[in-house]
Every structure is written in structure tokens, then in C-alpha cells.
Amino acid sequence: MEFATFAQRVAAIEAEPADLEIVALVTELFEETLESAPLEDGNPCSDAGHGTATPDDFDTPDNLEIVARFVQGRVFPAWQSRTLDIGPSTCYEAIARAAGTNVRTDDVEARLADIGEIGEVAASYDFGGQQGLGAFGGGSSSANTTDGTDLTVREVYETLSELAAAEGAGSQDRKVDLLFGLVNRCSSEEARYLARLVLSEMRIGVGEGTVRDAIAEAFDVPGGEVERALQVSNDYGQVARVARDDGLEGLTQLDLAVGRPVQAMLAQAGTVTDALEEWEQAAVEWKYDGARIQLHYQPGTNPDAGATEVFSRNMEDVTDALPEVVEFAEETLEEAVILDGEVVAIDDDGTPLPFQEVLKRFRRKHDVEKAREDVTVRPVFFDCLHADGDDLLEEPLTIRHDRLEAVLCDGDERSRSPENVDGLSLLWQSDDPEKIESIDAEALEGGHEGIMLKNPESTYSPGRRGKHWRKRKPDVETLDCVVTGAEWGEGRRATFLGTFELSVRAGEAGDELETVGKVATGITDEKLEELTELLEPHITAEEGQEVDLEPEVVFEVGYEEIQTSPTYSSGYALRFPRFVGVRSDKATADADSLERLERLRD
Ligand SMILES: Nc1ncnc2c1ncn2[C@@H]1O[C@H](COP(=O)(O)OP(=O)(O)OP(=O)(O)O)[C@@H](O)[C@H]1O
Description:
Blueprint (H helix, E strand, L loop, with lengths): L2 H13 L3 H17 L27 H8 L17 H12 L5 H11 L2 H6 L29 H13 L5 H13 L4 H11 L9 H12 L3 H11 L2 H18 L12 E4 L2 H7 L3 E6 L3 E8 L8 E5 L11 H10 L4 E10 L8 H8 L5 H7 L1 E12 L2 E2 L5 H12 L19 E3 L2 H13 L4 E5 L10 E8 L6 E10 L8 E10 L5 E8 L5 H11 L3 E5 L2 E4 L4 E5 L2 E4 L7 E4 L2 E5 L11 H8 L1
Parallel strand pairs: 1-10
Antiparallel strand pairs: 2-8, 2-9, 3-4, 3-5, 5-6, 6-7, 9-10, 11-12, 11-15, 11-16, 12-13, 14-15, 16-19, 17-18
Helix pairs in contact: 1-2, 1-9, 2-3, 2-10, 3-12, 4-5, 4-8, 7-8, 10-11, 10-12, 11-12
Bound molecules: adenosine-5'-triphosphate (ATP).
InterPro entries: ATP-dep_DNA_ligase, DNA_ligae_ATP-dep_bac/arc, DNA_ligase_ATP-dep, DNA_ligase_ATP-dep_C, DNA_ligase_ATP-dep_cent, DNA_ligase_ATP-dep_CS, DNA_ligase_ATP-dep_N, DNA_ligase_N_sf
GO molecular function: ATP binding; DNA binding; DNA ligase (ATP) activity; metal ion binding
Protein name: DNA ligase
């Protein structure tokens, strides 16, 4: 499929306001991939991610798989840790180079400050005159060869894969060269969507539900089964291809794979009364104050050679940052498992430390051993999604928990009481509010955050913030907001960013951002320096003291009240917002939504 055709279809989708029509247009787009040229042989690119995923995951993607991801603004499957790792400046530089010898990166940035959206900026240049300069980029990629043929979605995918693989010295130059090679072959319209794709800003209103419905429609398979297949595979491309090639039967055979992370099940805020009203009994667990982890363990042929991978709740690979978790897995586990849990920082006595301590370790890439000396972590597991070939998502919580307990203690230890099983989160079942209150008090006393109330009968729903898991914390609710702008301080604080603009997710697909306020209180000078260091690389435009920021960093903020307000684009404002911390374990997609803000207001 030509990239120009893709850009044209996507433009029509973007212009369409009605949800049902959008599904119809995405369905047509998927059907159209069938008519486009079949796979070229000998394609050098591999879809391999890492670890122990099944061979299915290593297939070379075809047009449908690529398009099913591109249309959602993704290049690679959600479960892969692979990223393009392109900052906005790389993209601006490639656009400037392709736009002509007299266009500089500054010009692109100036247009962005003016227009406010990178797609529109890219589309405002004419790249046609540069066709003969393809070799300029010096890359070997097909995108850099200018044989006069039109750019295809496959070439875009291959070049972006090559770009993602660039590492080490000179890799940034290589990325610019490769991207330049692509932009150079684009029409203005193609450049619009290419720029948005590489900066993860597709935002055409196509959410996960739209793609699910379009796959069901295009290949005549039940939506429910598509949904299940998406949950276990976490790959829209693969599910679309299987639905097309093997229909319903193929979809039902898609299973979890050790090494391929699954989206985490999430919780709502809740009370004991609500839980007991809805369920006969509640499963009660401590709410550990750490960071969510998903552990994948595959035993090796020799007992010491098991493969362990640890993922964050964003499915990022955090294995290297958490050697204690790897050691725990190697010492404790014997069968292939996928476990869901929390990694908690502890002091020398094993008492839990506050959440901010875990973050010092969580995504660390350098000096892990040194950091380990300063902060010790330990894993606690509360769910088992897969054990020894059995997928357990459809099993009730109590069965999954029993399996978890069995996995965490070997044969001899089975008789031990659960309290003594290392790494096991305890679970009590009760219909007695007083008993639950006493578990809560015990949790708080033990340094935990509160309790979780879970429906004992509930299945595991990846990616869902449903009613079956409720969290009960003594604090008032906080909001996790995306930082979309900031202001340089004054006087003593002139070199620090000081006031931070906060936004929540909005729109049908949750991929738009609307502002809700600015936070400036609750931040020490030391913290401001740290935040400036964190945010400065994400500045996209500056005017006077104000800066625009790429939406990459999530702040947890407290507030006294949510008011309606014409000042911010969401229509609401946080009253007395207060900085609580950086949620470095969260991506923009995990930030709170306008819908939640409205719910909290009620
Ligand atoms: N026993 C437990 N069962 C499930 N989740 C737990 C448990 N103990 C701690 N947690 C943590 O609590 C989180 C559930 O709350 P929620 O889904 O709202 O996540 P969140 O947005 O990170 O919320 P919060 O800021 O309250 O942690 C889980 O993601 C997990 O990290």
C-alpha cells in the first residue's frame, strides 16, 4: 500500500466526526490493504522484540499489520519495548533538511510555535524539489533510494525499524539521516502524518475500540473474540492478520506468551460498604505503596538458566533496574509463569519505605549496583496470569491466588502458612466490615498505603479500570496530570522552570489533552532544579517566560476542589493545586482523563 493512500484515508478519518462512520472508514482501510501489493520476499526486517515470546511474534509484519498499528499512531506492537527514541528536535531537523537548503531547524520551530501542531507544520513545506538529493542522507535504507517510485507503508515501517535499531555513537545523526530520507520522498500530506507518527501524535480519533470494531467488521469475526485476542496478545497488527487469515478459529488460539507483557488490570477508588453491597464477600489485600511490575519467568533447560523479564505497568522492560526481582525469580520459581505484583522499597528491617524511594530504582539504567546499595527493593505478587502452560485470565481471583501461592512455594513448603511465603501478597475473604477495618488498620500500621477490595469471583481484565478492583486509601484523591507547559521563574529562580501547566486526557480515544490549571506550590528549590532538568529536553517552543512542553511527564497533584472555569480548555480548574510528585512510572496515556475529573467533581 502506498503511504500516500494511507495518508489520504487517514485524513478522511480525521475529518469524520461520527464514531460509526470512523469505524466504517477504518474497516475500508483494512480491506484495502488486501488489494495492495503482497509482501516482497527477502525482507530483512524482523519483528522480534526480546525475550521468550513465541515464534508467532517474530513474523514479518504485512501491510495490514503495519496499517492496523499506524492508524493508532503506533509503529511497533504495544508489548514491545522497542521505541523510535526520536526527540522533537530530530524530527524538526529532518523536516528542515528535506524542505530545502535555505530552511533551518529554527524555521521549523518558529512555524511550530505559530501553528502549534507538528503535522500541520510538516504539511506547510514542499518537499518535492528534493527528490534528487536522497543520497544526501547516506543511509542504506530503501527510503533513501530515490528511484522515482512512491513511498509505501512498508518502506516507512522498515526505515523506522532501522531507525529504532540505531544505537551508540553517531546514532542520532543516523536517525536524522533515515528520517530525512523518508520526509524527502513525502508529499506535504504524507509528511503531515509521518511527522505525527514518529512523534506519537497521530491523534485522529481512532482508539482501541474503533480498531477492534473495524477488525470484527472487516473480517467477519465476533467483536468479543477480537477483544479477548487483543487482551492476550497486546498487538493490534497480529490480531488483524490472524482474523483475516484464520478467522474465529485462529483468534481463539491466540494465547498469552511468556515474555510478552499484558496490560495491567487497574482499580477504582471505593468503599467497604460499596464492595460488600455488590459482592457477597470481598477479597481484601494490603495496598502496597510501590510500583507495579509484571514478572515473566521461563525456566531453562538447566535449572540455573531461567529467563526472567520484568515489565512496568506501561509494559516497559525494567528488568535490568531490578536485580533483586530477577534473583527472587531465579531462586523461587520452577515453572513458566506471568505474575502481577508490586515492587516495594524497604529499610533494613524490611519495613516499607515511601513510594518515592522505589522511583529512585525503578527505571534506572546506569549505576544500578550503586543505587541498590542505597535503596533495597523487594517484590510482592498478588496475581498469577499464567502458570505452566495454563492461561488463567478467565479464572476467578481466588483460583488465581491459590495458583500464585502454589507457584511461590515449592512442594515441601506447601504446608507453610501463607504469611511465611516469600513474595506473596496475603488475601483475606470477608463479609464483615469490622474485620475489613481491622485489616485496613493493620495495613496502615505496617507502612502500606491502605487496602484493595476485590471481587473474589472476578476474572482478570487487562487494561481495565473496572469495578472489580477497588482501592481504599485514607488520603483524598489526587490527580495524575500531564505537564504541557511551564514558565521560567524570576529573580533567584530565573534558571528554573517554576509554574507548570497541567492537562488531562480527553476526546473519544483519550488521546487529546485539555488544560486544567497550573501548579506552583509545594515545590522546593532543590525539586525545581530537578524538575527543570527533567522537563527542559521536552521544550518545544518558548516565548518570553513561557514554554510549551512535549506531553511526556506526569505530575501527581493534590487540590482542594474542582471548579468549572472558562480559563482552561477543559472547562474546569483545580482549586489550590499542590505538587505531590512526579509519576515517572506513568506515561501520558496513563494520566487521568477529563471523565475522571468530572466523576471526582460529582
Ligand atoms: N494488593 C494489590 N492489588 C492490586 N494492586 C495493588 C496492590 N497493592 C498495591 N497495588 C497498586 O495499586 C494500584 C491500583 O491502583 P490504580 O489502578 O488506581 O493505580 P494508580 O493509578 O497507580 O493509583 P495509585 O496512584 O492509587 O497507586 C496498582 O496498579 C498497583 O500498582
